[in-house]
Every structure is written in structure tokens, then in C-alpha cells.
Design brief:
The complex is a heterodimer. By secondary structure, chain A is an all-alpha fold. Chain A has helices at 22-29, 35-58, 63-78, 93-111, 127-135, 144-170, 174-180, 193-200, 204-228, 233-244. In chain A, 63% of the residues lie in helices and 0% in strands. The chains are: A mainly alpha, B alpha+beta.
Chain lengths: 246, 1289
């Protein structure tokens, strides 16, 4: 999976980040291709092919077909073929992508013609990996409509985690991160803390604070990831709520 | 799915898989992603206690713009800030509509719920459209940390500013509140609660409409758990917030707004917030009592008891009718003297009529006295006005008293002016009765009193203060009236008003069209006896030679105030100076060392500066104003906190002693005089029997008065306390009195013009024949607050305390002298010296600045001695140091130039003088006395520019053959100087015929030396530059021959033209002087040579042993070669271009085992940073040249004592800064010689150190070096090393 570059000082509020997030660039560029927009789109596609693949599979296509179709979708994206139509959804990459997928599948259904694969396509699949990953997705209790978003959310959080880990690593605190990570979600209370505290040399109090901080940082990282997929800052909150506000 | 791979989350039961999200539960992680997790309670508390709340800085305008949605707004300016928010001015880009953008920091602890709520409410607000509510245009997030709200921009003032700047009238309050209620009701009806009603959220527009701002949105931030809402934080502003807004968990509805309204109304009307047990507003202020009910109903603590609807309040408001005439009089708690004040209003529909039409009561005295010139003078003196055309523009709010104390029943004042000018009566109890015209929107006249607020009478817009008008204020027959342009508009009677001062004031209006500008000011007496003229009685003539005469005679002038200097003034307060009759002992009180004590300074004569202060007597408490009788046996002073003190007041005390040098007797409280109040500034007559003092006790004229008491004998208590009477005491403060030496004349300070311009004026009071005093102010060129004046015995010096422009920064002792009007005044501070006011040091030597160009002291401040050093000056030095000095072979008076002074003597004198003067504080550590540089001397004589700047004295000698110090003529004119003229010839006819060569055709009165200053001064005001005695200069005469120094200026032995030119130099060995060599001292900048060591070290040279001479006749043995070999062999360095570069440290022995007493070592080197070239005469003592500073500008010659070997002589370490002339890159020469018992060191031929006695018996010659690597650019190079055997003298 693509590693993200960790943005130093990404928590600096005064930096205007929307200019550099990926989807906003692409959305702003619209049908025009530019190197910057291309790169942005590439990176986004890199990041989020799994949900697409999962969605295609969920819709009943075989593995081979799913791969094929995913490729086609991204090819379309890169060629900006999808851009003229889905203006209303341009605000969010997720929904835009989903919309584009819908269109593709409909087209495929109609024409039953596989499109040529574009050589310039940068998206690569590792076949085994994608399938096994799909297999491991929690699959129950979720409506089909929600499934895509669920997957998307998982991918997004994964990227956020990686970014968080890299943040800690950058400041030489891998050990701290490793110790704190299990407690990111668990609210096992302070009993679990004591042994770990000894490990990294913090008092339980300080440990609790450190966990609290990490969670906060995680939230920030998640938010950053969401920002990358929306065109407008005003969309971020809505997207967050949509993805995580179960 | 592989069942083995899935587990479920312990918390939520969702299946999790190890491959997904690293085994974390997606559902739980989502929760984390969205919501802010909370910490356990005590962790929160613990971490908060240690965390410091950072103060929030509002972002810069550019940053705000970046945070806002792009392209929608431009941010142009910053309007203001609060605790958690800041408001900016901007424009909605597309619509070009001005907006106010408020950004608020959203606390990270608050969850998304808050933002949801915020948005919802903002949406509702956006739907509110009401003229009284500021429209919300947009809101959202500005970056991740902040929220923004864009609102319509309303141009106006907010109510808080209006309240602060002067209060709101009842009618205006009514108008405002009605609108606020209406707007608020509208919002309430639409379900919006403001939650932060306060005056700063009400905007008042110019047309009288109001707008409510900051609705509901500022208050969403609820306090964090466990934390209190601080003033700028949520839940409204505490001062205005309803009680339920503070209680967690309670619901807050529109009634909270009602409460805030109540607080706000209260503040509008009374100017204060309702605290604790607050008074109903109608009791504090004169308003309709109906307000009370509204406010009390609004301020009910429980919402259910409270007025519940804004429109209900509106209804109640409509039943209030404000008092007519828009007057609000504020009542204070204390009953006032003005119970008798009856105000009769004569305000009618006012029309400005021509000045010619005046009504019947308009005063028409026989004549008006024009006091405009005095007004102009006062304005100029205190800088509050300036002339423009014929008018005096007032630049600063000011007022001044027009005429002295007058009975008010008889005077009128008339001013012709524009702008806001007022005339008034200032009563003894500080009441002011003022009529004036205001420059603001409503022109009005008002009567004010310091106890009450003004009573305003609006004249309406018909009076234009920008146009010239005439205001007359008259007090006649118990009635006081005010006329504007001839029409009476105001009058009142006041039984308590009997006397006071007429005063005029002006207020500077912000509106330039309404400038306060006075054309003419007059006053007149109306009926009654003609008032006496201003104080100076024309028939008062001071007795000639009396103190009064000295103080007032035009034959004398005052010098400018001089600080007595850092030697006397310390950093704390120094005050209450007192001089002995001979002016040689100065006593004063000082607060140095954190306590107040009395100190005493001595000096030898009145020209000299005082020596250092020493404490004289242990007097507990906080004593001040010491006064000592001439026989110095009785001391009286004031001391708050002395023994037997009655209450907390200041009491007078006395101590006596049997004789001047005897110890002081016990402290005696003068309780027969002291009373429960303030007594101060005691003065005793010379016989000690009459005590004058100031006191606040009653029975006088009011305020500080002057009193006296007498006693029969020195042991009897004082009695017969009497006030000095109304001729000297007025109701104005008289303070700080001083009894002059004639035991009659008094000096005191009257404090004038309390208020805007306050200053002290020194007065003199002379007792009159028929009792009473003649009092007049002294025209002293002094501005500011003079404290504790003290006049010297002869009236020639006035000492006082002042917080002046220079000095320690607090009260210092200053002096002004009374000198004949033509006298040349000297100054006690070199920095202040000018040619007209020379600097005088403690010996009385005088110095003037000489502009120096070129050379090493280019453009530095160099003060030249006005005279050649006199016998009397030099004698002090000789006496103090025991220096040998041969008397001149002819008779000399004390002011003749000292001769037989060698260059070495001159150097020693300079150094001694420097130490002495530094001790006495007349010069600083950054100044030192020295000889003039040759170049400087040339500048002093006026040829500085004409000589080549870089040549040595030898090179310049003989130049400019036609230029003499006095001009171009030869022989010299009569007043040119003291030379050897025909006066030196023996009478004609004597045998044998004289072969003496003299200047023919010229004679001056002096055969030998003349008193300094007998001839005309030179170009810089210096005397005897030519003739009398020759003057040593600092440098070597010849660059190579380091054996002679330069003498300049000619002397009384001069008899030929060649040596009389301005450029002539005479070469002479430094160690000898003769009957014409003298010294002129210069005060230069810089720290100078290290004096302590030199002085302690250079003993008085006994006549039998001449000081060591530079061994210029030594036969040097060059050992450079063997040294070079040593260096190369030992790898200490390298050799390049004949220079030995030393790179490593170490001791380099040159010759071993010498018996000393006969050898000199000479090294030619190029000095460098931190390289020591040490010439060791033994291992036990070391002479070193050390570069001290990185820039290489200072070099020192250092002697060090080797502790281990215990040398008895104990050479101290000293540093000798050699100044910029020491070039690191050039060759320099160091010579160390031991001759007899002298160990001498010369650097570049200049003797820099001599020690005597206990020279080492044996040792070795050596050189040592320190590694230069420590500092960059360091070099140590040796060119030549030689030694010589010296013959014993």
C-alpha cells in the first residue's frame, strides 16, 4: 500500500491546506489534465482502489472481472472521462468515484465490451492480496449501500494510522507509539496501563494523558485523510460524519 | 471467511480481523475518529493544574483570509479582540459588501455536538431579519481550530464606549432601550436567545438607531468540567450574565437576556454595575423612579420571578418620561457645601446677537485691564499655547489663574475667543464655578463644582463655537453671572463663595474647526475700592547688599540649574539641602541605602566640588529637612515616625550639642510646637531662639501656612506660636520655607495652578516696616517642581531638590547660582562644558572643549585646561604624593604656571588628578586626564587643519614658519604672551654689558613667569598657549629616537621667532624639567591607563636616584639567530620573510643564569591576539604583553606574580590600554631592563612600568608564548631578539 508522506507540522492550523489536497486539485482542474492534477488523481486512486474492488466484487462480479473493471474505472478517471457528468458529486472523491463506478458498470452491462487497458495506468493490483483482503472484510450487518462506505472508512483509517505511526517515528517515539497503540480504541481502564507504563517509563497518569493525546492526533490524521478526498473544506465535517458517524 | 481469523471486539462485539486495521475494531476506531475521547476525571484535573492556559493571539489578517473559504471574503483590517475571539473588517468579494468577520477559537475539548448546534443556530439567525439586529451573512469553520461568522458591518460606536466616555442621559437611555427591547423581543419570538447582552454588543449608529450584535453565537463554549468560566469565556460575560448561566445543567432561556438588560440599564444610568447590595438607580442618580422597578424586576435571581418578556419591559419603559432639559445631576453620598446653591436658569431659545446689544446687567466698569500679555507669557512658559496671528491658540488643555486672590464681590472677567474656553472662579475649598462653551455637538454652558457633575444647559445648535464670541463672568454683590455675547444666560448665588481666584481654561477640541483660540482676556473691578495691582509694590526697594537685593537686582543673573553630580546624588531621593554659612558644609537628607538619613559633604572652597557624603547622625524614622544653626550646635528637622510622635503626622524634632565636633545630644520632640497634623520645613534663626515652620494646623488662611514660635533660652521650650499672617500666607499652599541668613528674609515655594499645569514658584518675603511681609515671586529660570530651596549665606547660591532632566532619575540636589551678570559661569560637569561655561574640577582648574580633527582623537570630546597648570594646583599633587619638585629659581605666585615639571612628572600629575577627580565624582570612569596629543595641541592653537595629519611632532616642526599662535605678526603684539622681552634686560648702563638675547622692540610686565591668564586668550578660549611655560605633549618627538618628548607653546625664555611659531616644537628628555617646562592638562575620553597599580606602584622618586632611562645607549647583542634556531629545532613555529612565526605555546629560555642588575632584553615583534610575549627576568616575575580584546585593539602589559615562588614585591596585575595606535600588524618593541633595583618595561619606547626595590637577584631571560589558536587571526611573530649588558649608573 502506498505510504504517505508525513506532513510535518500538519497540525499547524494556520496553514491553508486545501490548496494541496488531492481531490480539490483534481476537482478544480476538471476535465483538463495537468501534471499536478494527474499526480493527485494517481495518488488517490492508489489509495482507494480497495473499496472499489470490494464494491465491484460485492456486486457479484468474479475476481477476474472485478480486477478488470476496477482497472477500467481508473482508466476512465485518469482520462477524465467521468468528469463531465458527475458535477453534483464532485465535492467528494468517494461519492464521485462511486458514481463513476455506477456509470461504468451500467456501460459495461450495456456494451459488454471491455475497454482497452491503458498502458499509462499506474494502478497495479496484487491479485492475491486484494482478494484476501476482501475476504476478510466484515461482511455482516451492513447493507450493500453502506458496505462501500464502510470499506472506504476502513481504508481511510488505515492510512491515518500509518500517518500517525510515521509521526511518532519522526520524533523518535516508535516505542511510545507501539506501547500506546493497543489503547487507541480500548478503554480497558487503567489496569491495563500499569505494565505498559513500566515499559516506557511513564506514570499511569502521564500514560493516560499520552493515550488521550494519541487519540487526538489520530483524529487529526483521520481528518487530514478526509480532507484529501474532498474538494471543499466545508465538506469535511459532513464526510466525517457520514463515514464515521454510524 | 476464515473463522480462525476473526474475533470480536471486546467493547462493541463487532467482528475484527487481524489483517484489517492491524486487528483493531473498525467500529471503535470510528468512534475515536469522530469523537473526542475523554480522560478519567482526575487525570483531567491533574493535567490541568500543571498546564498553563496559553493566551490566544488573534491571527494576522493574512492568516485569517487564508482560513476563510477561499474567494469569498477579503480581510482588510482588524477591529478588535476579546478573550476567545477577534473581529476583522472585510468585504464580501463578489457582492462587494462590507462585513465584519468574527473568528472564534473553538475549543478542542468540545465535540461535534457543539458545532452542530452552532450551525443550526447560525442558520436560524440568518433567517432573522430585523433592523435592530446585525445580520448574519455567513458562518462556518475557519481552519480546524476556529469558527467564523460573517456579519453585516455596522458603522457606529458601541454602547460601552459611550458609557465610558461620559454617560448616557436618561432620554438617550430610553431611546436606546426601547429599540433594544424591540429587537430582542423579535429574536425571542423566533426562538433565539442572545445570551451575551452587554453594552459592547449594542452598536449605536449615527442616526440614533441601534443594532444588537453577536447573537447567541459567542456563547456556545461551555466551560470544561471542573473549570470555572473565566471572564472572557463562555456563558456570557459574567458581569452581565444571569445566575442560571453559570449553573451547569440549568436551561437558559430568554429570561437570561432580560437579566442582562437589567444590568446594562443600570450601568447606562449610573455608570456602575449593580454589585452586591446595589442601590436603586434613582437614589444614585436623578432619574425617574420608574426605572427602579424595571431594573429590580429584571435583576431577579430566579428566572421565574423575573420579568419574562422584552416587550413587557418595553411597555414599562414607555411609561417613563425623562426630566426636561436633558439634565442629569449625579448625586454623591456626601452632603455638599452647595446646599445653598440656587441655580436660576436663564436659558431661553438662544440667538446669537451682535455684540453691540448687551443687556442691562452687563458689567461696565471704568476700564478693563488687559491681561492678555500675561496669558501669552504663561502659555509660552508652560507650553500650552502658541501665537497665531493675533490669537493665542491653545494646544493643550490648560488653565491658569488670571488674577490674584480676590474678593468675589467686585470682579468681572471677559474673554474674546473661539472654541471651548471657560472662565471660572476657583474657591478656596477648590470649588469651581465655571461658565463655558463646549465644542461638542451640543453647545452648552455649565456650572461645575469639583464635587458635582456639570449642570448643563444646552444652547442648541445656534451657538457656533467656531466663530468668535465673547464670554463674560462677573461676581458682584453676592451674585455671579455669565454673559455670552452680551446676553446674560446664567446666574447664581452662593453664600459660601467669598474669595478665590479667577481662572481661565481651555479645552482642546478634537475638531480643528473649533479650535480654542483667545484673542483677548481682560478683567475689571466693579465698584468698590480699586484693587491693588499685581504683587510687586513699586515702592519696595531692597536694601543695597541685602539678600533681597542680591536676589532681585538686575546686576545679577541666575545660572542654569546644575546637578550636584553623582558624587553627591545617589539613585534614591536626595533632598532638603542645607548649607553652612561659609558654604563649605552641605547637609541633606537622602534615601539611599533604603533608609532616609542625613548626610554631610565638605569642600575646601566654594569653587570646588563637594567631597563624598558621609552619614552624620543616627536618627530613626524617616527624617528630612535638616536645619543646623551657624554654630552647628542645634539641629532641627522633621520626622514622621520619630519618638513621641502624635499620631501619624510629621513632627518637628531637635538635637543639640555642646560644640561643633561633640556628639549630638538626645532627640527632643518639640511637642510644645507639634500638633496633630503636619508640621514641616523647620528653620531656626541664627541664635536658635526663633523657629519658623510650615504647618497645616487651623487658624491660618487655609492650606499650608507658615508659622513661627519663639523661646527665651536654648533650653526653654518653644511657645508663642503665631501665624505669619495674611500678607504671606494665602489659601494657596505655601511650603518649603527657608530662612535666609539675615534671619528675616524668607524664601518659600508657592504651588501654582493645581490642575493641568502645576508648577512651583519661588517667592521671597521681606518683613515690612508695619508688620506683615512684602512678598514677591522671584524670576528664576526654572520650570518644574522645586523642593526644599536653600539659599547660601550670601545669597549667591540656591540649592534645591528637583527631579530634573538629568541625574539619578529621582529627586536630586541641584544648584543655581546668582552671579554678576557678566560673569563667566563654570559648570561642574564636563559634558556640559562650553567655552562660555567651562568645566571646573575640584582644584578649580577650568576646561573648555576644543574641537579636534584628525589624528587619534578625531572628533572626540577633548577638554583643554584653560590655563597651564598653576603652582597652586600642582602643589596639591606634590603634597599628596610626596613627589619631588624643585622650586623655580625665581619667585612665583600661586597662579603662576608650575615649572620644573618633567614629562614624567606631568604624566604622574595627570594620573593622580584622574584618580582624585573620579573619587569625587566630577569625572566618570570613562574620562581621564592626560597630556594633549601633539595633534590636539595644534588644533587648540588653530593650525590643526594646516598640518599634515600623520607626521610626528618632529616632522611637523618648522612647518608654517609665518604662523604664530596670535596671528601673523612678528614681533608679537603686546598682549600676545609672556616672552623674553626687553624687560629682561638689565637697566642700561649696567656693567658688564648684557649679552642676553631678547626680543627687541617688545616688553611685557613679567621678567619670569606671569600669573596665568594675564594675556589675551587664544582661538579656543585658552590662555598662555604662547609663552609663559612650555607645555608637554603626549608623544615622542622623534619616531626613531625614543628619548625626547615634545614641548610646545613657547615660554618666558623664548626670544626668537623660529621657536615662537605655532608649529614649533622643542624636543626635551622626558625625565627632566627646567624652569620653563610646565603642563597643560587635557580631559579626554576613555578609561585611561590603569591607575591604581601605577599610582600605588610608582613611588616618590627620590632626588638622588633619577628614574631609569630608556637604554638607548645600550650595546645590543643580537640573539635572533639562536632564537630562530631554537624555534625551528623545537618546532615551535616557522620562519618566513625574516619573521619568526610562533605557533605553539611554551617558555623559551634564552640565556640562563644571569645575575641581574645589568641587563636589558629587547624584542621586536608583531603582536597578536592572545599571544604573550613574555620577557622573563626570572621565573618569578613576568612582564607580558597581552592582547585583551578580540578586535586586537587593546594591549596590556601585565606583570604577574608567581605565587609558588613567593616573590616579595607582589606585582599586581594591571592593564594598560594603549589605544588604537597599536597596530597588530606592525613591528613593536618591548624592552625590559633591570638596572640597579629598577625593573622597567618600555613598549615602543614608552615607559610603561617601573618597579623599584627587591629586584630578583638571578634568573634567566626567556620568552613565552601562548597558543594563538584559540582566537582566529591570531599571530605571534618575532623579528628580533637582543639583549644588552648595561652599566650601572
Amino acid at each position: 500500500m502506498a505510504m504517505l508522506e508525513v506532513k510535518k507540522g500538519s497540525h499547524d492550523a494556520s496553514r491553508a491546506r486545501f490548496d494541496t489536497t488531492r481531490w480539490s486539485l483534481v476537482a478544480a482542474a476538471g476535465c483538463e489534465r495537468s501534471q499536478v492534477a494527474d499526480e493527485a488523481l494517481n495518488e488517490l486512486c492508489h489509495a482507494y482502489w480497495r473499496p472499489i474492488y470490494a464494491e465491484i466484487r460485492r456486486r457479484g462480479h468474479s475476481t477476474a472481472d472485478a480486477q478488470d473493471l476496477a482497472q477500467q474505472l481508473f482508466a476512465r478517471m485518469l482520462r477524465r472521462e467521468a468528469f463531465g457528468t458527475a458535477d453534483r458529486e464532485k465535492g467528494r472523491f468517494r461519492s464521485f468515484l462511486l458514481g463513476a463506478l455506477d456509470h461504468l458498470l451500467i456501460d459495461v452491462l450495456r456494451s459488454k465490451q471491455a475497454q482497452k487497458r491503458d498502458d499509462a495506468l499506474l494502478v497495479r493490483f496484487v491479485e492475491d492480496e486484494s482478494e484476501s483482503w476482501f475476504q476478510r472484510l466484515p461482511a455482516h450487518g451492513v447493507t450493500p449501500a453502506e458496505a462501500f462506505d464502510q470499506t472506504w472508512a476502513v481504508v481511510l483509517m488505515d492510512r491515518a494510522l500509518a500517518a500517525l505511526r510515521a509521526e511518532y517515528a519522526d520524533s523518535g517515539r516508535e516505542a511510545v507509539f507501539a506501547a500506546l497503540e493497543p489503547f487507541l480504541t480500548a478503554d480497558s481502564g487503567e489496569d491495563g496501563y500499569s505494565s505498559v507504563c513500566a515499559q516506557i517509563g511513564l506514570t499511569p497518569q502521564a500514560f493516560a494523558v499520552a493515550v488521550h493525546r494519541m487519540r487526538r492526533r489520530f483524529r487529526h490524521c483521520v481528518r487530514e485523510q478526509v480532507e484529501m478526498t474532498v474538494a471543499d473544506p466545508s465538506e469535511v465535517d459532513a464526510e466525517m460524519r457520514h463515514l464515521f458517524g454510524i | 471467511m476464515n473463522a480462525a481469523d476473526t474475533t470480536t471486539c471486546l467493547t462493541c462485539g463487532t467482528p475484527i480481523s487481524a489483517e484489517v486495521l492491524g486487528g483493531k475494531c473498525p467500529a471503535c476506531l470510528k468512534k475515536v475518529a469522530l469523537a473526542e475521547p475523554t480522560l478519567p476525571e482526575d487525570t483531567i484535573r491533574a493535567s490541568r493544574m500543571t498546564r498553563r492556559q496559553p493566551s490566544w493571539e488573534p491571527p494576522l489578517i493574512e492568516d485569517v483570509a487564508a482560513l476563510l473559504p477561499r474567494g469569498f471574503y477579503t480581510v482588510e483590517g482588524f477591529i478588535g479582540r476579546g478573550g476567545m475571539g477577534a473581529v476583522y473588517k472585510g468585504t464580501q468579494t463578489v457582492l462587494k459588501r462590507p462585513v465584519a468577520i468574527k473568528i472564534m477559537r473553538q475549543d478542542q475539548a468540545v465535540d461535534a455536538e457543539f458545532r452542530l448546534r452552532f450551525l443550526r443556530e447560525a442558520q436560524m439567525l440568518a433567517r432573522l431579519s430585523h433592523p435592530g439586529i446585525v445580520n448574519v451573512i455567513d458562518c462556518g469553520e475557519a481552519g480546524p481550530d476556529m469558527l467564523f461568522i460573517a456579519m453585516e458591518f455596522v458603522d457606529g460606536a458601541n454602547l460601552m464606549d459611550v458609557i465610558r466616555s461620559g454617560g448616557v442621559s436618561e432620554a438617550r437611555a430610553l431611546k436606546i432601550m426601547k429599540q433594544v427591547c424591540e429587537a430582542l423581543q423579535f429574536a425571542h419570538t423566533h426562538g433565539i436567545v442572545h445570551r451575551d447582552i452587554k453594552p459592547s454588543n449594542i452598536i449605536l449608529m449615527r442616526d440614533g438607531r441601534i443594532k444588537l450584535a453577536d447573537f447567541g453565537l459567542a456563547t456556545q463554549m461551555e466551560p470544561e468540567e471542573g473549570e470555572e468560566a473565566n471572564a472572557d469565556h463562555a456563558a456570557g460575560t459574567p458581569a452581565y450574565a444571569a445566575p442560571e448561566q453559570f449553573a451547569a445543567g440549568q436551561s437558559v432561556d430568554q429570561r437570561a437576556d432580560i437579566y442582562s438588560l437589567g444590568v446594562m440599564i443600570y450601568q447606562m444610568l449610573t455608570g456602575e454595575l449593580p454589585h452586591g447590595d446595589w442601590k436603586p438607580p434613582s437614589q444614585a442618580v436623578a432619574i425617574d423612579p420608574a426605572w427602579d422597578k424595571i431594573i429590580s424586576q429584571a435583576l431577579q435571581p430566579l428566572p421565574q420571578d423575573r420579568l419574562s418578556a422584552a416587550e413587557a419591559m418595553q411597555e414599562m419603559l414607555s411609561r417613563i418620561s425623562p426630566l426636561s432639559g436633558e439634565q442629569i445631576r449625579r448625586r454623591k453620598a456626601r452632603p455638599l457645601m452647595l446646599a445653598a446653591l440656587l441655580v436660576s436658569l436663564a436659558v431661553i431659545g438662544w440667538l446669537v446677537m451682535g455684540k453691540s446689544s448687551r443687556d442691562k446687567n452687563y458689567p461696565s466698569p471704568k476700564s478693563w485691564t488687559d491681561t492678555t500679555p500675561e496669558l501669552r507669557a504663561t502659555a509660552a512658559r508652560y507650553h500650552f499655547g502658541q501665537m497665531r496671528d493675533q490669537r493665542l491658540d491653545i494646544l493643550e488643555d490648560a488653565f491658569f489663574d488670571i488674577a490674584d486672590r480676590r474678593e468675589f464681590s467686585d470682579v468681572a472677567v471677559r474673554v474674546t475667543c473661539t472654541g471651548c474656553v471657560w472662565l471660572g472662579l476657583r474657591g478656596t475649598l477648590n470649588q469651581y464655578y465655571v461658565g463655558y462653551v463646549r465644542p461638542d455637538g451640543d453647545a452648552s454652558i455649565s456650572i461645575t463644582n469639583s464635587e458635582t457633575e456639570p449642570v448643563k444647559f444646552a444652547l442648541g445648535k445656534s451657538h457656533d463655537p467656531a466663530k468668535e464670541y465673547e464670554l463674560v463672568f462677573a461676581a458682584q454683590g453676592g451674585k455671579t453671572r455669565l454673559w455670552l455675547d452680551g446676553r446674560e444666560i446664567l446666574s447664581f448665588e452662593d453664600a459660601s463663595l467669598k474669595q478665590g481666584r479667577i481662572c481661565l481654561g481651555a479645552i482642546v477640541s478634537p475638531d480643528p474647526k473649533v479650535r480654542a483660540s483667545i484673542l483677548r482676556l481682560e478683567y475689571a473691578t466693579l465698584g468698590g475700592a480699586p484693587q491693588p495691582e499685581p504683587p510687586q509694590r513699586p515702592d519696595f526697594k531692597p536694601a543695597p547688599g541685602s539678600i533681597a537685593d542680591v536676589l532681585t537686582s538686575p546686576e545679577f543673573k541666575w545660572t542654569a540649574p546644575e546637578n550636584l553630580g553623582p558624587g553627591i546624588n545617589a539613585e534614591g531621593k536626595d533632598a532638603s539641602p542645607h548649607l553652612s554659612p561659609d558654604s563649605l558644609i552641605l547637609t541633606f537628607a537622602s534615601e539611599r541605602n533604603q533608609s532616609r538619613r542625613f548626610y554631610e559633604c565638605l569642600r575646601d572652597h566654594t569653587d570646588a566640588a563637594f567631597g563624598a557624603p558621609r552619614e552624620i547622625s543616627e536618627v530613626g524614622g524617616w527624617p528630612c529637612t535638616p536645619w543646623i544653626t551657624p554654630d552647628r550646635r542645634t539641629l532641627v528637622y522633621m520626622n514622621p515616625g520619630g519618638p513621641g510622635n502624635k499620631g501619624s503626622s510629621q513632627d518637628l524634632y531637635m538635637r543639640q550639642r555642646a560644640a561643633e565636633k561633640a556628639p549630638w545630644g538626645p532627640v527632643v520632640n518639640l511637642d510644645s510646637v507639634n500638633y496633630l497634623g503636619h508640621d514641616q520645613s523647620p528653620c531656626l534663626s541664627s541664635d536658635g531662639l526663633t523657629l519658623y515652620f510650615g504647618s497645616l494646623r487651623s487658624g491660618g488662611q487655609g492650606g499650608h501656612d507658615m508659622w513661627k514660635a519663639t523661646r527665651k533660652t536654648l533650653d526653654a521650650p518653644f511657645g508663642g506660636i503665631t501665624n505669619l499672617g495674611p500678607t504671606i500666607n494665602t489659601w494657596i499652599q505655601e511650603r518649603d520655607m527657608h530662612l535666609c541668613s539675615d534671619d528675616r528674609t524668607l524664601l518659600f515655594v508657592r504651588q501654582h495652578n493645581e490642575g493641568t499645569v502645576s508648577t512651583s514658584v519661588l517667592h521671597m518675603a521681606v518683613p515690612g516696616v508695619s508688620g506683615g511681609y512684602h512678598v514677591q515671586p522671584l524670576d528664576v529660570p526654572f520650570q518644574g517642581m522645586m523642593v526644599d530651596p536653600c539659599l547660601s549665606h550670601d545669597g549667591r547660591a540656591l540649592l534645591f531638590a528637583w527631579k530634573g532632566p538629568t541625574g539619578s532619575g529621582d529627586l536630586d540636589l541641584w544648584q543655581m547660582r546668582r552671579v554678576p551678570k557678566d560673569e563667566v559661569v563654570t559648570t561642574t560637569q564636563p559634558a556640559l562644558a562650553t567655552v562660555e561655561t567651562p568645566f571646573a574640577n575640584t582644584l578649580g582648574m577650568r576646561f573648555v572643549p576644543v574641537p579636534v580633527t584628525g589624528g587619534d582623537t578625531d572628533r572626540q570630546r577633548v577638554l583643554f585646561g584653560v590655563w597651564e597648570t598653576r603652582v597652586q594646583d600642582y602643589a596639591v599633587f606634590v603634597k599628596a604624593t610626596g613627589r619631588a619638585w624643585q622650586p623655580a629659581p625665581f619667585e612665583q605666585g600661586p597662579t603662576h604656571p608650575a615649572v620644573n615639571v618633567s614629562w614624567d612628572d606631568a604624566q604622574a600629575f595627570c594620573r593622580w588628578l584622574t584618580v582624585r577627580e573620579r573619587k569625587s565624582g566630577t569625572i566618570s570612569e570613562n574620562e581621564h586626564y592626560r597630556l594633549p596629543l601633539d595633534r590636539e595641541w595644534s588644533c587648540a592653537v588653530g593650525i590643526g587643519e594646516l598640518e599634515p595629519p600623520t607626521a610626528t611632532p618632529w616632522g611637523k616642526h618648522g612647518g608654517l614658519p609665518d604662523v604664530f599662535p596670535w596671528g601673523l605678526e612678528w614681533p608679537p603684539p603686546a598682549d600676545a604672551g609672556n616672552f623674553r622681552g626687553e624687560e629682561c634686560l638689565p637697566p642700561p648702563g649696567a656693567t658688564p654689558a648684557s649679552t642676553l638675547v631678547v626680543i627687541r622692540g617688545r616688553r611685557d610686565p613679567f621678567i619670569h613667569t606671569a600669573p596665568v591668564g594675564s594675556f589675551a586668550p587664544g582661538p579656543c578660549g585658552l590662555l598662555d598657549l604662547s609663552g609663559n611655560a612650555s607645555e608637554w605633549c603626549e608623544e615622542w618627538h622623534h619616531p626613531e629616537r625614543r628619548d625626547v618628548r615634545a614641548l610646545r607653546g613657547g615660554d618666558h625664555l623664548l626670544n626668537d621667532g623660529d621657536h615662537a611659531t605655532a608649529a614649533a616644537r622643542v624636543a626635551s628628555p622626558p625625565e627632566t624639567g627646567y624652569s620653563a617646562t610646565g603642563v597643560r592638562v587635557v580631559l579626554g575620553q576613555g578609561a585611561g591607563p590603569d591607575l591604581k597599580a601605577l599610582l600605588e606602584h610608582v613611588p616618590a622618586v627620590k632626588p638622588s636616584a633619577p628614574p631609569p632611562a630608556y637604554p638607548w645607549s645600550a650595546q645590543w647583542t643580537d640573539i635572533t639567530g639562536s632564537f630562530k634556531k631554537q624555534v625551528l629545532d623545537g618546532a615551535w613555529g616557522t620562519v618566513e620573510d625574516d619573521l619568526i612565526h610562533i605557533t605553539t605555546a611554551g617558555l623559551r629560555p634564552l640565556e640562563n643564569n644571569r645575575v641581574f642588575g645589568d641587563v636589558a632584553l629587547r624584542v621586536v615583534f608583531q603582536g597578536c591576539l592572545k599571544a604573550n610575549v613574555r620577557c622573563l627576568h626570572s621565573l618569578r616575575c613576568v612582564a607580558a604583553v597581552e592582547h585583551v580584546t578580540d578586535s586586537g585593539e587593546l594591549i596590556a602589559a601585565v606583570f604577574r606574580k608567581d605565587e609558588k615562588l613567593g616573590l616579595a614585591t607582589g606585582f599586581p596585575v594591571f592593564k594598560l590600554p594603549l589605544g588604537r595606535e597599536f597596530d597588530l600588524q606592525k613591528d613593536h618593541e618591548l624592552v625590559v631592563s633591570v638596572v640597579g633595583t629598577h625593573l622597567s618595561v618600555w613598549l615602543d619606547g614608552r615607559l610603561i612600568h617601573v618597579t623599584d626595590g627587591a629586584a630578583p637577584a638571578s634568573g634567566s631571560l626567556a620568552l613565552t608564548f601562548q597558543p594563538p589558536a584559540l582566537l582566529s587571526g591570531a599571530i605571534a611573530r618575532v623579528r628580533k631578539v637582543e639583549y644588552a649588558e648595561l652599566k650601572q649608573p
